């Protein structure tokens, strides 16, 4: 039994980000060709493209605003021209902002989270689900967060956006499941990334003490969950919200 994504094309939004780059590499290592989406970091996109091509996989770079349906449809045209139809969509991009209390958080921050979490998910479905329906195979994987279950102070805009995303994904799973398309979410905990390794900030005793596994997860562990859900090994899993947080949050039955 192996995790084989050969002859699949995966789009990773926010692929130049700390987690996105590892997801893109891991999907490529499993055999997929990769559409690398970026918003600002063109240099990282080019570097990632070179890495993926060195693995013997094809890679295309797409630039665009994931909160715009027009931009996403333009990305689709580019990907189909260079790689073919997208089979796997990983919705990883999210707007960044400074967290503060509800009383201090600006309305614009709530709007940015709604646009980048909820509307990105809607637009990606509108753009890529029809081709998956024709093919009778597809994967939508949304990157959610453990914060959606924690509801801690200062998390409100982020949690509101991700909980909205959760609703879209659960309903999408029911609406397109008959076409053998799965729709799932991976919810990372506070994850160690390249940035932590460079800054020597991998450890946080206060956070680790709350985690049953007594450590922070790694970017590779998040990417492993994404790759599993993208594969045929997960063909009967849909509508799931899967924390990859060392047990720090546990959905109840």
UniProtKB/TrEMBL annotation:
It comes from the Bacteria. Residues 192-213 are annotated as: Disordered. It is an enzyme of class 1 (oxidoreductase). Residues 194-206 have a biased composition (Basic and acidic residues). Keywords: Oxidoreductase. Its EC number is 1.1.1.-. GO terms for molecular function: oxidoreductase activity. InterPro entries: NAD(P)-bd_dom_sf, SDR_fam. Belongs to the short-chain dehydrogenases/reductases (SDR) family. This is SDR family NAD(P)-dependent oxidoreductase.
